[in-house]
Amino acid sequence: MSVSTRLRTSSDGTDTAAPAGRRRWLVLLVVALAQLTVVLDATIVNIALPAAQADLGMSDGQRGAVVTVYALAFGALLLLGGRIADFWGRKRSFIVGMGGFALASALGGVATSGEMLLAARGLQGAFAALLAPAALAVLSVTFPSGRDRVRAFAVYGTIGGGGAAVGLVLGGVLTEFLSWHWCLLVNVPIAVVAIVAALPLLQESRAEGHNRYDVPGAVLVTAGLASLVYGFSRAEGGWGRWDTVTFLVLGVLLLAAFVRVESRTAHALLPMRVLADRTRGGAYLVSVLVGAALIGALLYLTFHFQLVLGMTPLRAGLSSLPMTGAIVFTAPVVSKLLGTVGPRVLMTAGPLVAATGLLVMSRITVDGSYAAQVLPGQLLLGVGMALVFVPLQNVALLGIEPRDAGVASAAVTATQQIGGSIGTAVFTAVYAAVVTAAAGAQGPDLAALVDGYAWVFRSAAIGLVVAAPVAWTMIRVDRRRFGATEPAAHLG
């Protein structure tokens, strides 16, 4: 069996594709570039939206759709993308996904109409759904166990946690000094570097045996997730809207049918063995709750910076950096603690620390300063996110069979994406209700906006507090599995 085209079998019978020595860390660098590209794109465009709307003559609905279309395509196609990576090959899927993402970004960067920009964003989401699980699967099989795996996933988790804030900074810089077009075009050179490096570095790996695509499962999960994401996106206009209720109910029914089909087919798109483990299921639940809180908090924190504190896009982006800095400095410490205290303690403490940070930020006032009212909360939020993200990626993929690495990786990303969509919809509804109640006869003033932001932060904190007992009761992994060598222990 060729190492370059197949997973190689080790002496204990475990399939892996783990290059030795320094080459593994170069692989990590390539995967990190891919992860950074996908994460950046979730926020870098947000800063550019007002300029793009004015330039292209888009309506407010089209402006919101620029974000929704990307999330819709990304979230709905992730599981299918993960299975394609498993069957077709992770290296091949990585390169095609990165190349397609670059082309879609170039199309968006030269867009001359709102419709052209929306089409490009949909293509970005589709190729990201192939790229993201392929990248994480490559990382999983490259670092199968031990301390090197912990370090590698610490880097990956740091990018996942801090990349959103970096996207705000980069979006501010590009919009202010170049144009909004470069918030999309910047992906092209990054993708070229990643592809050129991936061609000689990445080893091909794929699931062995007779592989067949689960077409009914793919249709059900894609339609179900699309309905769910779209339904939540429509909730901004009210939870009682017919389209909101219809698409949410339809999404739940389709996903229930998907679970039923998957439990009965021999070629499942998402094998139930991936979800059946208690620890892995707990990691997925924590991922949903943390993704919802983080994305919602960052969105409304950006609004506070620009609308209340009067910051330019660049200053607003730079003001988001302390959270990223806290994640970067905390992550190495967390990776060392992982083998000492285990993921259960870290993933329980992390949401509580992050929730404390959000509650600190919920005390904002119209005339309050950034340094006194926002900065301390940002630092706590960053520390809490590092405590969660570093062990989360490890736990969610620990014990996964190599043949399921792609789809399990997709499930991790899908939970964060769906969580973010749900969180944004819920927090938007909370914000709208608070601002409407606080607005005077002349409409909402700055005080009403601040009240809305404060309640968003409190709501996000509640979600994080819920994540803590989920982690404590469901995450059961022997901490020695994250040491220098991996003992013969099992999840659960």
TrEMBL record:
Localisation: Cell membrane
Keyword tags: Cell membrane, Membrane, Transmembrane, Transmembrane helix, Transport
Pfam families: MFS_1
Membrane topology of the entry: Multi-pass membrane protein
Transmembrane segments: 25-49, 61-81, 93-111, 123-141, 153-173, 179-201, 213-232, 244-261, 282-301, 321-338, 345-366, 378-400, 421-441, 453-472
GO CC terms of this entry: plasma membrane
Keyword flag Magnesium: no
GO molecular function, one term: transmembrane transporter activity
Species of provenance: Friedmanniella luteola
Protein known as: Drug resistance transporter, EmrB/QacA subfamily
CDD domains: MFS_MMR_MDR_like (cd17321)
Alphabetical list of PANTHER family matching this protein: BLR6921 PROTEIN, MAJOR FACILITATOR SUPERFAMILY MULTIDRUG TRANSPORTER MFSC
Entries under Gene3D superfamilies matching the protein: MFS general substrate transporter like domains, Multidrug resistance protein D
Limits of the Major facilitator superfamily (MFS) profile domain: 27-479
